[in-house]
Amino acid sequence: MTLWVEEAGALTTVQDRGRAGLAHLGVPRAGPLDRPAAELANRLVGNRPDAALLEVTWGGLELRTDAGAWVAVTGATVAVDVDGVGRGCGRAEWLPAGGRLRLRTPSSGVRSYVAVAGGLDVAPVLGSRATDTLAWVGPPRVMDGATLPVGTPAGPPAALDTPRPPTPGPLRISPGPRADWFAADAVARLCAAPYAVGEASNRVGLRLEGERPVRVRDDELPSEGMVLGAVQVPPDGQPVVLLADHPPTGGYPVLAVVHPDDLWQCGQARPGEELRFVRG
User: Fold this and answer.
1) Which CATH architecture has domain 171-279?
2) Less Cβ around it within 10 Å: N or C end of the chain?
3) Residue 87 bridge partners (DSSP)
4) What pLDDT, on a 0 to 100 scale, did the predictor assign at position 23?
């Protein structure tokens, strides 16, 4: 089975669980920014958890298939249709042979996940089918006219599944390894006021705009290992939450680290929206 991409939208990439464990070689992990939504999409069509699927930023995807298949769209709230007929999100839908699946622009959230029964059978790179947008390791960015092979279905579609993680809320943080480079109340102040999501946010990092943490050390920090969810503070003082395509090392001090279970919210936060932090 093959998918033909008629329109790829603003940014569509292939993702799976990522290539964790290669940071010592300078290779980012990649993987979906909204992991719970990606895992749900795969469950709905009967795929294994590590099956490759599409991450679609800001909608606009249109594709067709040469054979019937179960598909599921999760993540951002987006209108979905098959051959012009409205279909639902968060459930398995049948895409007939020759049928066209289209995602409109999301009304909330940023990233949608499109899973097809059997998973995308593109060639793995370093053990993963995830696309990293920092160094462009992995499958190439999905473009208009691309063809994507599909594997053999692993199981039947699911009739019902949990629609989403718990209700969005403040991002839980713990103090980072360089919290002592900032004022003693820096973590508390980070939690005291909202931050707006910046326009320059991407798969590498969520850039925030708000109160600047006060540094008490001005010397240079040698590059050191970075973890997913690290809240870095660059010279302009505006915090950046490192996401799936973050570089393995960095030289800006890390004030805090976001809890892994809350990172999916960063993948769906729209420019201008407000986020809050909470100690926990």
Assistant:
1) Beta Barrel (2.40)
2) C
3) 80
4) 85
